């Protein structure tokens, strides 16, 4: 605490405060400028936040509610007379119709094992041995499921207290093994004895063609070197001047030579290497035997030696067909019962492998005597194991293919067969949950556009809110009489007064902002440009009309006549859907404007919103950043704020230094005045005046 002015009678604090006021005003001005940037960043980030939420709500196709998904434009609702057996949903392509459904669903093969399998016991499934672990039966079943999944065997297992037994005995518990793939051919076996068959061929990687027979000293340093090669039927010549590859000692510089060769030959799919002995090897940059023909490469008329590359050889196993007649074999951990094969055996095997999702393909040898089983994968670890079931264990049974008949109101029939209990016809998805053994189930379709209409109303309401916000930010005029409050000013105001003042400061800070104006114009253009190929539809024809407020905050917003929209959806829902979500044409010959005119309104909006708000390269993201992204601190405004803070810190230090200098100066004055007062007092005493 300073006590000043005792000698001089001056209020030193007030004098120094007034003296430093110009410097404090400069610091406060920097603080106000910084706060203006913080306000702008806050306003930008609010727009980014609202726009990202709008995008995620309506345009993110990962969201089940996205309006870009055709299923959310279904104007037909279907009801089933028995939802527990058949459930039906319509997409945007669905039409009103009634259906009758009958038949049986696809079922999985399974094996029931009553009793317990103890901890540590081993079990064989499709020839693969597993050791059961776990303290309880259910824990062992869970662990075995994980092991089966890791082994790539499409079989699940559960422990149940309700084994379906034909013995007539109640209270049977045990393990149920069931194929994860439905259908009659999705077999497997528990237990049994297998023997490996066939001749294996290991995977061989593809190699590159090479051209050898050259040395680095084949190149001259005192003239041009000519490399000649055939590209197709055309002869190419490449010239390398000796000065470019010469060492200071007058010999060939191998590093310079390699650089020149690779620069010249890379466009011809060749690369060059030179070993320590100066031998040059040219190598094809593409692998395989068939990807490059002998280019007849020569250097200064010396022809090289061409060695062709080798194609990749996939891992395979060859089995004699005579050893496989009506047998059960295990291929890539899949049990295949060849006694069920109809037609060509390789076609049947491929059918089963495809259903099981396996990367092996079967084919017959040219003489038709052998079956060749080839892996689709590459790598040293790939192999194709084939085993024959010699002694049967418990063979899974009960699997059947679906056989369902769907009849529409015109008498048209579709018979669905195979391993799936799901089928989509004319935009209508049928999901079958059980056999229909009695009367056919009735599916009734009716027009109902309420949900689509409601979704569109919500969409335009949210769109209007976003556009109004951007309009307000870009059209509000800034009142420059209101600047951010200093700390001293805040001390003289109430909280409500500060709040009102700050609101006036924020107003107009983004007036005529170029980025927001550009984005706003893009959104409005997306809405008002006609979409070609939608039968002449536009927003106004379906009851969505622009607000006549060309200078206000509602410029670019819309009102909705819900009755008119409902009627339009009932009459032409598919064309309306296309008007909104039609994809951009892929034809590269079309101009940008032509592609734009053929793109749906929501697809246009999605592109604008994604480019302007969802990517870190967007101009607003670079300018203001957004919380939770890599641009949160790495943006222009944040960097400017940091510079202001550093400048203010430096100015505060300078302020303190100047202030301390003044206090020192006035302290010296106090000292001098004390001496003067002492001398005056002494003289007065000596003169008898004291």
UniProtKB/TrEMBL annotation:
The keyword Secreted applies. Keywords: Bacterial flagellum, Cell projection, Cilium, Coiled coil, Flagellum, Secreted. Transmembrane segments: none annotated. It is found in: Secreted; Bacterial flagellum. It holds the Pfam family FliD_N. The keyword Transferase does not apply. Residues 420-678 form the Flagellar hook-associated protein 2 C-terminal domain. Residues 8-102 form the Flagellar hook-associated protein 2 N-terminal domain. InterPro entries: FliD (IPR040026), FliD_C (IPR010809), FliD_N (IPR003481). One of its GO terms (biological process) is bacterial-type flagellum-dependent cell motility. Homopentamer. Required for morphogenesis and for the elongation of the flagellar filament by facilitating polymerization of the flagellin monomers at the tip of growing filament. Forms a capping structure, which prevents flagellin subunits (transported through the central channel of the flagellum) from leaking out without polymerization at the distal end. Belongs to the FliD family. This is Flagellar hook-associated protein 2.
């Amino acid at each position: 605490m300073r006590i000043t002015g005792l000698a001089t009678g001056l209020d030193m604090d007030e004098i120094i405060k007034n003296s430093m006021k110009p410097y404090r005003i400069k610091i406060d001005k920097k603080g106000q400028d910084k706060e203006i940037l913080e306000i702008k960043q806050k306003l930008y980030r609010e727009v980014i936040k609202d726009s990202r939420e709008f995008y995620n709500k309506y345009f993110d196709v990962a969201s089940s509610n996205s309006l870009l998904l055709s299923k959310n434009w279904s104007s037909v609702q279907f009801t089933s007379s028995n939802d527990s057996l058949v459930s039906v949903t319509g997409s945007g392509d669905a039409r009103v119709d009634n259906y009758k459904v009958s038949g049986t669903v696809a079922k999985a093969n399974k094996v029931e094992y009553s009793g317990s399998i103890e901890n540590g016991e081993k079990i064989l499934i499709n020839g693969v041995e597993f050791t059961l672990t776990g303290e309880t039966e259910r824990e062992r079943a869970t662990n075995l499921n994980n092991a089966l999944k890791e082994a790539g065997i499409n079989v699940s297992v559960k422990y149940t207290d309700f084994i379906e037994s034909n013995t007539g005995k109640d209270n049977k518990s045990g393990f149920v093994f069931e194929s994860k793939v439905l259908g009659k051919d999705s077999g497997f076996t528990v237990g049994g004895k297998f023997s490996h068959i066939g001749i294996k061929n290991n995977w061989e990687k593809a190699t590159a063609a090479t051209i050898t027979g050259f040395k680095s000293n084949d190149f001259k340093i005192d003239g041009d070197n000519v490399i000649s090669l055939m590209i197709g039927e055309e002869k190419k010549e490449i010239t390398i001047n000796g000065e470019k590859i010469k060492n200071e000692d007058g010999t060939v510089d191998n590093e310079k030579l390699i650089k020149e060769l690779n620069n010249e030959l890379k466009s011809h799919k060749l690369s060059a290497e030179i070993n320590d002995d100066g031998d040059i090897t040219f190598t094809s940059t593409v692998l395989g035997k068939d990807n490059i023909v002998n280019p007849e490469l020569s250097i200064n008329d010396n022809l090289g030696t061409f060695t062709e590359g080798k194609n990749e050889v996939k891992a395979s196993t060859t089995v004699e067909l005579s050893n496989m007649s009506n047998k059960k074999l295990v291929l890539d951990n899949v049990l295949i019962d060849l006694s069920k094969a109809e037609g060509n055996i390789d076609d049947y095997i491929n059918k089963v492998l495809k259903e099981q999702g396996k990367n092996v393909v079967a084919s017959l040898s040219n003489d038709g005597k052998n079956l060749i089983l080839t892996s689709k994968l590459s790598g040293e670890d790939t192999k194709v194991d084939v085993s024959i079931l010699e002694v049967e264990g418990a063979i899974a049974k009960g699997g059947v293919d679906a056989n369902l008949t769907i009849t529409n109101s015109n008498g048209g029939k579709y018979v669905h067969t195979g391993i799936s209990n799901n089928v989509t016809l004319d935009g209508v998805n049928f999901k079958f949950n059980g056999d229909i053994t009695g009367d056919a189930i009735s599916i009734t379709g009716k027009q109902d556009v309420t949900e689509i209409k409601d979704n569109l109303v919500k969409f335009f309401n949210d769109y209007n809110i976003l556009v109004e916000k951007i309009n307000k930010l870009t059209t509000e005029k800034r009142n420059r009489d209101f600047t951010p409050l200093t700390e001293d000013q805040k001390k003289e105001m109430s909280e409500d007064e500060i709040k009102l003042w700050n609101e006036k400061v924020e107003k107009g800070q983004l007036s005529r902002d170029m980025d927001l104006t550009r984005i706003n114009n893009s959104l409005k253009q997306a809405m008002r440009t006609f979409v070609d190929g939608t039968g002449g539809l536009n927003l106004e024809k379906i009851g969505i009309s622009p607000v006549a407020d060309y200078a206000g905050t509602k410029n670019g917003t819309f009102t909705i006549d819900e009755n008119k929209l409902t009627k339009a959806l009932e009459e032409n829902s598919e064309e309306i859907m296309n008007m909104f979500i039609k994809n951009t044409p892929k034809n590269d010959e079309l101009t940008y404007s032509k592609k734009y005119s053929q793109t749906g309104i929501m697809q246009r909006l999605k592109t604008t919103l994604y480019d302007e708000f969802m990517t870190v390269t967007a101009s607003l993201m670079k300018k203001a950043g957004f919380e939770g992204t890599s641009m949160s601190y790495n943006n222009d405004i944040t960097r400017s704020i940091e510079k202001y803070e550093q400048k203010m810190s430096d100015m505060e230090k300078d302020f303190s230094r100047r202030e301390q200098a003044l206090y020192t100066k006035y302290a010296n004055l106090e000292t001098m005045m004390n001496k003067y007062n002492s001398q005056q007092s002494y003289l007065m005493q000596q003169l008898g005046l004291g």
